[in-house]
Design goal:
The complex is a heterodimer. Chain A is globular. Chain A is an alpha+beta fold. Chain A has helices spanning 15-26, 40-53, and strands at residues 3-8, 32-37, 57-63, 66-72. Chain A has two helices and four strands; from the N terminus they run βαβαββ. By secondary structure, chain B is mostly helical. Chain B has helices at residues 13-28, 34-52, 56-65, 70-96, 111-127, 131-140, 143-166, 179-209; one strand at 4-6. Chain B is globular and about 50 Å long. In chain B, 10% of the residues are buried. The chains are: A alpha+beta, B mainly alpha. At the A-B interface, helix 1, helix 2 and strand 3 of A face strand 1 and helix 3 of B. Strand 3 (57-63) of chain A pairs parallel with strand 1 of chain B, so a sheet runs across the interface.
Chain lengths: 73, 210
Amino acid sequence: MKKYELNCLGEACPVPLIRVKKEMEKMEKGDVLLVHVDYACAMQNIPNWAKEEGHPVELVEVNNGEWDITITK
Amino acid sequence: MDNIKQSRKKSQLGVAVIFIIVTIILAFNLENSRLVMFLLFGMAFGLVLQRSRFCFTSAFRDPIILKMYTMVNYVLLSLLVGVVGVYFLQIIYSIQGKELTGLSAVTPFSPLTMIGATLFGIGMVLAGGCASGTLVRISEGTKLHFLSFIFFVLGSILGGGFTGIIEPAFSNLKVRLYLPEMFGWTGALIIQVLIIMMIYFTCKKIKNKK
């Protein structure tokens, strides 16, 4: 199980989700992706997308307006 | 969100309450007291937009870039509520004997509308938000949207000036379509609901194909 990390701080929609999609393509099943976002829409649409695709997601608000999203492929 | 965890989060409720009270006091000192009502409705609207993460830009952009149709459905639903709401408002007006909303309320449609819509569409995707989205995100503290807002205002001023010059050239291409006048209020309601449903089922079909 490999760990991947994406820093999307300061990036607006739809850039974070596109980057997550590209990163996920590289990953193997069971790998974990940690995404840092500070854009409110991204904390909504990344988990939504992952759920739709059937990947387990966890969302943590680490600070006011800053979220860490963990997606397991 | 079902599995959201929060840590180190300070409540900003106190600040919000003080801010709202100060704004209302300021608003009551304005000459037009209707502005207070507009302000309250505006705040309620903003609250709903922010909490629901409603985003018109996302509704028009995501089906093309990301193949996601969630926000389209939300926009269609809100249109549906609007269409039905206006219908009942007109019924109430007619019971009260008030004048119904007429053709004078309709803005004519011309090729300029299409050009403007295309420009606005490109602009809102690049800026990351339409008018309401930009305002909501400024209040959330996204720096990018402060910049968007400044250029939004500048663009609106420029656009407003240009329209005054260009519009007379298109005046013979203007079309005024008013469904209630052509089909009556009930007919117009049925047609609008059918159009909304058509878009909904088209989106659903495209999504299921994927």
